[in-house]
Write a structure and sequence with these properties.
With 322 residues, the protein is an alpha/beta fold. The chain contains ten helices and eight strands. Bound molecules: NADP nicotinamide-adenine-dinucleotide phosphate.
C-alpha cells in the first residue's frame, strides 16, 4: 500500500474510531492508521460493506488490528446502540467524524427521528455519538470533524438549521458542513473552559483540555483519481475518464485522507485548529483558515443548543483537567 507521500508515526497501542469507514476518505484513513499499527474500529451503516472494507485491508495487511461497528448516523437509536458497545471497549484515543451524505437529495427528507436527513446524518448523529462517548475518551484524545470547502460557498441559516423553509440539495450539504465545523470549534471552547474551571478549582495555573477537538477538510477528493479497491472503490471507465479531466484541481481520496491522518497522528496538532491540503484542493496537510461564521462563538452556542434539542438531551462538558 505505497499510495502515500509521507510516513505516519508508529500508532501501536492507539484506539481509533472512524465513522463512514467502508468507503472513500474514511476507508483510506482507516487503512493508513491500521498500517501504522493503530487498532481501528471501522464504523458504517451496512455490515456487508464494512466486511468488504475489512477484507480489503486484510488482503494487504493480514495482521491489521481492525474491527467493525454498525452505526447509522442518521438514526439516534443506532447511534445510542453504538455508544453502548463503545463504552464496553477500551477508551478511544481518536474519533474521526467522517460519515456523510455527499450526494444530497433534491427534495427534503426526514430521518427516522424527524430531523432533516442531511443534518441528521452529517451532524446530529455525530453530536449524539460524542455526547455518549466523551467521558470514555482517553486523556489527550483527538476528535477530528470533517469540514469542507463548500462552507465558503454558502450562507448559514442558523435560525433554520432543519431547512424547513429553504431546502435545496446544495444548501443542505454546505449547511451541514458549517454546522459540523461550528460544533467542533464550540466543543473545543467548552473543553478549554472545562479545563480552566478544573484548574481554578485546585488553584493550578495551567489548564490543558482533556480532549482536543479540531476540523479537517480534504480539498477536492474524487473516486476516479483513487486507486481501485475491490468492494470499496470501483469507479467505471466513464467516471475514471471524467475525473481524469479534473486532475489539475482534484486528488484521489487516498490523498484526501492525508490531512485526516495528520490530524489524528501528528505532534503539531491541537484543538481548535483547521487543517487541509496545502494547495486548497489538493496536496500535503497544512494549517488552513476556517470561515468567520464557523469560528463565531455566539453562533456555535446557538448551534449547540439546537443540536441538543434535536437529539433530545443536554450535552454537558464536565470540568476535568488533563
Ligand atoms: N470528497 C471530498 O472532496 C470531500 C470534500 C469535503 C468534505 N468531504 C467530507 O468527507 C467525508 C467523506 O466523504 P467521501 O468523499 O469519502 O464520501 P463517500 O465516498 O461517499 O463516503 C461516505 C461515507 O459515509 C458513509 N455514510 C453515509 N451515510 C451514512 C449513514 N447514515 N450512517 C453511516 N455512514 C454513512 C458512507 O457509507 P455507505 O457506503 O453506506 O453510504 C461512506 O462510508 C464527508 O463527511 C464529506 O462531507 C469530502
Amino acid at each position: 500500500m505505497n499510495w502515500y507521500p509521507a510516513a505516519v508515526p508508529p500508532q501501536a497501542g492507539r484506539e481509533v474510531l472512524v465513522t463512514g469507514a467502508n468507503a472513500g476518505l474514511g476507508f483510506f484513513t482507516s487503512a493508513r492508521l491500521a498500517r501504522a499499527g493503530a487498532h481501528v474500529t471501522l464504523s458504517g451503516r451496512d455490515p456487508g460493506r464494512l466486511a468488504a472494507a475489512v477484507a480489503a485491508i486484510r488482503e494487504r495487511m493480514p495482521r491489521a488490528a481492525v474491527d467493525t461497528l454498525v452505526i447509522d448516523t442518521s438514526s439516534l437509536d443506532s447511534v445510542r446502540a453504538g455508544v453502548d458497545r463503545l463504552l464496553d471497549r477500551a477508551p478511544l484515543d481518536a474519533v474521526v467524524l467522517n460519515a456523510g451524505m455527499v450526494h444530497t437529495p433534491s427534495r427534503r427528507h426526514e430521518s427516522v427521528d424527524g430531523n432533516e436527513l442531511v443534518l441528521a446524518t452529517n451532524v446530529l448523529g455525530h453530536f449524539a455519538l460524542l455526547e455518549g462517548i466523551l467521558p470514555h475518551l482517553s486523556r489527550g484524545a483527538r476528535v477530528v470533524t470533517l469540514g469542507s470547502l463548500s462552507m465558503r460557498l454558502s450562507t448559514f441559516r442558523v435560525d433554520d438549521l432543519q431547512l424547513a423553509r429553504s431546502y435545496d440539495a446544495w444548501r443542505a450539504y454546505a449547511q451541514s458542513k458549517i454546522a459540523a465545523t461550528s460544533l467542533a470549534f464550540e466543543l473545543d471552547r467548552r473543553l478549554r473552559r472545562a479545563a480552566t474551571d478544573a484548574a481554578e478549582a485546585v488553584g493550578a495555573a495551567s489548564a490543558t483540555p482533556r480532549v482536543h477537538s479540531l476540523v479537517v477538510h480534504p480539498g477536492y477528493s474524487i473516486s476516479g483519481r483513487t486507486p481501485r479497491v475491490p468492494g470499496v472503490n470501483e469507479p467505471n471507465r466513464t467516471d475514471r475518464f471524467a475525473d481524469a479531466l479534473q486532475a489539475a484541481w482534484a486528488q484521489g481520496k487516498h490523498r484526501g485522507a492525508e490531512p485526516i491522518v495528520h490530524a489524528v497522528t501528528a505532534d503539531d496538532v491541537e484543538g481548535g485548529q483547521y487543517w487541509g491540503p496545502v494547495w486548497l484542493v489538493k496536496g500535503r496537510p497544512a494549517l488552513a483558515a476556517s470561515t468567520r461564521t464557523s469560528r463565531d462563538a455566539r453562533i456555535g452556542a446557538r448551534v449547540w443548543a439546537a443540536a441538543e434539542e434535536a437529539i433530545g438531551r443536554p450535552f454537558e462538558v464536565p470540568a476535568v483537567r488533563a
